[in-house]
Amino acid sequence: xxxxxxxxxxxxxKEKGIEADTIITAIEDAVLTASRxxxxxxxxxxxxxxPETGQVDLFAIKHIVSEVADDATEISLKEAQDLYGDEAEVxxxxxxxxxxxxxxxxxxxxxxxxxxxxxxxxxxxxxxAEYNDRVGEVINSTVKRFENGDLVVEIGRVEAxxxxxxxxxxxxxTPGERIRAVIKGVNRSAKGPQIMLSRTDxxxxxxxxxxxxxxxxxxxxxxxxxxxxxxxxxxxAVYSRERDVDPVGACVGMKGTRVQAIIRELRxxxxxxxxxxxxxxxxxxxxxxxxxxxxxxxxxxxxRIMEVVVEDKQLSLAIGKKGQNVRLAAKLTGWRIDxxxxxxxxxxxxxxxxxxxxxxxxxxxxxAEAAPEHESAxxxxxxxxSVEEPPAPVEEAAxxxxxxxxxxxxxRDS
Length: 414
Hints:
Blueprint: H1 4-16, H2 20-39, E1 44-50, E2 55-65, E3 74-76, H3 77-84, E4 93-98, H4 104-132, E5 138-147, E6 150-155, E7 158-162, E8 178-187, E9 194-198, H5 202-212, H6 214-217, E10 221-229, E11 233-240, H7 247-252, H8 257-265, E12 270-275, H9 280-287, E13 293-300, E14 305-310, H10 315-319, H11 324-333, E15 336-341, H12 342-381, H13 391-413
Parallel strand pairs: 2-3, 7-9, 11-12, 14-15
Antiparallel strand pairs: 1-2, 2-4, 5-6, 5-8, 6-7, 8-9, 10-11, 13-14
Helix pairs in contact: 1-2, 2-4, 5-8, 9-11
């Protein structure tokens, strides 16, 4: 029949989720620590748990040597042979039993503290190893309490923390409520591993799609990117490995049933599902959905800058509330997007042509100024023919004078 101590060890191991051997090792270490405090010697002490009796045996280990230098840890070959016969040889070790029933209350209290400490350390290490391998996984949890805005939830037998910055603005929680969150990380601390959860990480959105859409789960449809502004809007880029499967339609589902289930889980967060494309122009066009894009041009490929032109009435839709739509599209595509309306683009082009025309006319003005200077120099060198015309009026005056003389003579004759 199993002794009561062994039964207690097994029950404790099951409760804490650790191995029974870990607890046994903790008990051996606890008794060893208490024995060293009680005996206060330099002996090489060793403990061993006896599963049949439930007792921890204590031994002093001595090394067989030819010449003894330390009586506490060594024994001569002759003394060893007197005790164990000719089987004793140099370099062998001999165990000498020591009493443990004399350790007393203080030693027992020390042993208790050591056992608790060892069990807690083993439990923490076990929790860290378990949940550190599950980072990025969506788990179900129950709201337990609030601490300075942070949410403490229960995951099975351990507690986790949902920090305020990882909570969606559109959500409110009550104790006892069940929520789904993604494991963001596990931190080591003096009080034990702290499991950090998140309701705002894009990984939660991806995992929810994997749970709701069978095509994503089996790999037919792939999620190439996901960005979120938790509580407001999210964008997901999907790609189909099979030509006959529509990736967007598979995610939306019949009458939107699949995506509506995810929206309900995220408390009404709007989700734009767009098709992924290797062509950056087409990808940006898709990412700006629901706005309709007129044309897209790459301004700087090295710095990944694009210019997008939309209709005047589509400009506010393309930019989104407080720039939300274009901001999410830029995060999803990895390109900086500059959105302009057709009217704004037209004015910009006209301004460029006006500036170009001004530069052209400015270049023609010096040639125009040089022409009059050339003409004035030529006129200064050539004599003007109009200067020699005054003799004509003199001849006319003479003719008039002759006419006048003939008139006077006529009058005298009469």
